[in-house]
Specification:
This protein has ten helices and eight strands. With 321 residues, the chain is α/β, with parallel strands linked by helices. The protein has one domain: Cytosolic phospholipase A2 catalytic domain, CATH 3.40.1090. Strands 1, 2, 3, 4, 5, 6, 7 and 8 form an eight-stranded mixed β-sheet that branches. Strand 1 (14-18), helix 1 and strand 2 (48-51) form a beta-alpha-beta unit. The longest helix has 23 residues, at 298-320.
Length: 321
């Protein structure tokens, strides 16, 4: 049984929120953190880290290895994958250049469609949104769809997906700093927040948060991508004095604005509750979207993130302290 921890309640001063964005989004996040560090701002010392989808992978990676090492690993040219049976995330696991601690630098940061299937994935998502009456209904519909895809993927798919995720993580233990990883229960549509006290291994928490295609099982429950909760899930940092949000997808949402699932609504709520909030988005949103699962773009995305972080370090130094 998965135990969901209590939401963050401002037990610290600084919170770092890492949003989703596929393979390139993961590389961009690592690049931004490394670029900020090169500019004298170390955000890995946050009191709280919130990770969603590709951001969950980045949160786990940054909790187990130095940002500079992780960034360097993303710059290695991807090794073409060896053909094999599809994994739960929709693409063959393949063999890639490994980064620190065995993280697969050439592979993506989220489980979803491969480079050729992102357009179909987005079309499927838009159809689910159009049919839903409200956010809870959308989560239930998304979970049911993911369970059907899991059944079609076969009984071995979760194990292959777990092995792929494990290869990306520098260490198996949860980070020492408080880390919240998001997911959604595929059966009920209820949001789930996992941390080191949840009784779930880190690799399973990351695999669930990154389950953008078929649902992923933990025990007797199945889970889907944490981005189905509320985009970047920055609201989980409520109560923290300073919140830095790194958003590879720029805060965009396919859901109606009235549902307030987009990043702008999350930031508005945080500021209304007294938090100071800064948001970092990419200069080139074209690296994400339909190209988000292309491993060949990971070095490009990582460099773009590094440049962005380095350029913003001076402005963010006073904010982050």
């Amino acid at each position: 049984m998965v135990t969901t921890p209590a939401p963050a309640t401002g037990s610290g001063e600084r919170a770092l929120v890492l949003g989703g964005g596929g393979s390139t989004g993961n590389a961009w996040l690592l690049g931004v953190v490394a670029g900020l560090l090169d500019g004298g701002v170390d955000v890995t010392g946050a009191d709280l880290v919130v990770g969603t989808s590709a951001g969950a992978t980045a949160a786990a990676q940054l909790g187990g290895a130095a940002a500079a090492e992780l960034y360097a690993a993303t710059l290695a040219p991807p090794v073409p994958p060896v053909p094999s049976a599809p994994r739960a995330g929709g693409a063959a696991p393949g063999r890639g250049a490994r980064g620190p601690g065995g993280s697969a630098a050439s592979r993506g940061g989220a489980g979803g469609p491969g480079p050729g299937g992102v357009a179909q994935h987005l079309a499927r998502r838009r159809a689910l949104v159009a049919a839903a009456a409200d956010p809870a209904d959308l989560r239930r519909r998304t979970g049911a769809d993911a369970l059907e895809r899991a059944a079609a993927a076969g009984p071995d798919a979760p194990g292959r997906w777990r092995a792929t995720v494990a290869a990306r993580l520098p260490r198996a233990a949860w980070p020492e700093r408080r880390t919240l990883l998001t997911a959604v229960d595929a059966h009920t549509g209820e949001p789930v927040v996992l941390d080191g006290s949840s009784g779930v291994e880190l690799v399973d928490a990351v695999a669930a948060s990154c389950a953008g295609g078929p649902a992923y099982p933990i025990g007797d429950r199945w889970y889907v991508d944490g981005a189905h909760r509320r985009g970047e899930n920055a609201d989980l940092a409520a109560g923290y004095g300073r919140v830095l949000v790194l958003a590879p997808l720029g805060g965009a949402s396919l859901t109606p604005a009235a549902w307030r699932l987009d990043l702008a609504a999350q930031v508005e709520d945080l500021r209304a509750a007294g938090s100071r909030v800064e948001v970092v988005v990419p200069d080139d949103p074209g690296l994400f979207g339909e190209r988000a699962m292309d491993p060949a773009l990971r070095p490009v995305a990582a460099r773009a993130g590094h440049d962005r972080g380095r350029a913003l370090a001076g402005r963010l130094a006073g904010f982050w302290g």
